[in-house]
Write a sequence for this structure.
């Protein structure tokens, strides 16, 4: 039995390093979302995880801060959805448990699919100011994923605390990744 | 700027190693919860994090599988609530992204405080069969923590998917830890 001080290591797949570099500028909302969707597609194509990708940017400059891809099966850790991985790396790079630290610029997260209940809660604690989604909760449910207890009031709760949520950007491209994953019999893990 | 393949390391504070060993048997529900509450108290006393502790057990045998303490500030990672840390270590030890893998016995999580929105979602994906809570959402809110979008329907959602939720075991002991943390001016981080 391992000791209590063993460590759990959260990593990105190696191909991510060649894919986009932190610091690279993505000027428009479409460019930022296109990156999140391409991450989802590559994660499926290369067999490194579920059909979900995310990225954190500095809102004003468009500088890429961190990438995330679904890593649940690869790292045997059900918490490692794409959004969670991107937020963890963003906070590690900023050296802060909140992206709203006074010395930091505003941050936003782009995700290829609307966040599940866990990720929505995580976004609230992360300090991002805006979340932009491509595919919807219904799109994920359609291929068999459970999205957890998210209600209209859940989004309103975040909005009331200064986290803007935008939906449907490049939705068709993101849905295509979900459909492709389902068509090839990708693992659908739920509770 | 670090590369994409850097790693994020999730660790427990060193004192946890001397505190309880995985494999140790906690026969009753009260003993299991007492461990979670002691973890919360030690985390405050030793200055290693927020006033929240959790532990995962094999349900039938009472064998301890993993510990967790709030590690948000220590590891600069807003996802690392006590429940999240305990679940991550439990899955690492079981070598599975779900504690409901066919070869595994039923697992349950004890937490010194009712899970926030993120942790509730995470519990659904984790594969635990039962969640037992000490202090309530209201107790955490009373000392200034935001618990996120959790509604009565959120608990019902988990119950409907076979995750039993029990509340109020050793609640007074857990509340005392929360009050103590507030009294000594511990960091209350929110979104």
């Amino acid at each position: 039995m391992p000791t209590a001080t063993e460590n759990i290591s959260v990593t990105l797949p190696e191909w991510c390093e060649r894919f986009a570099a932190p610091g690279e500028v993505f000027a428009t909302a479409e460019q930022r979302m296109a990156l999140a969707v391409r991450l989802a597609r590559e994660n499926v194509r290369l067999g490194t995880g579920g059909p979900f990708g995310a990225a954190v940017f500095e809102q004003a400059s468009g500088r890429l801060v961190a990438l995330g891809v679904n890593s649940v099966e690869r790292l045997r850790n059900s918490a490692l959805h794409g959004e969670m991985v991107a937020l963890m790396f963003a906070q590690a790079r900023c050296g802060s448990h909140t992206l709203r630290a006074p010395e930091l610029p505003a941050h936003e997260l782009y995700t290829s699919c609307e966040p599940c209940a866990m990720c929505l809660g995580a976004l609230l604690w992360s300090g991002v100011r805006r979340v932009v989604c491509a595919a919807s909760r219904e799109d994920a449910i359609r291929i068999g994923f459970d999205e957890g207890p998210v209600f209209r009031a859940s989004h309103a709760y975040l909005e009331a605390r200064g986290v803007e949520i935008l939906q449907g950007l490049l939705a068709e491209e993101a849905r295509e990744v979900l459909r492709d994953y389902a068509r090839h019999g990708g693992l659908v893990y739920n509770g």
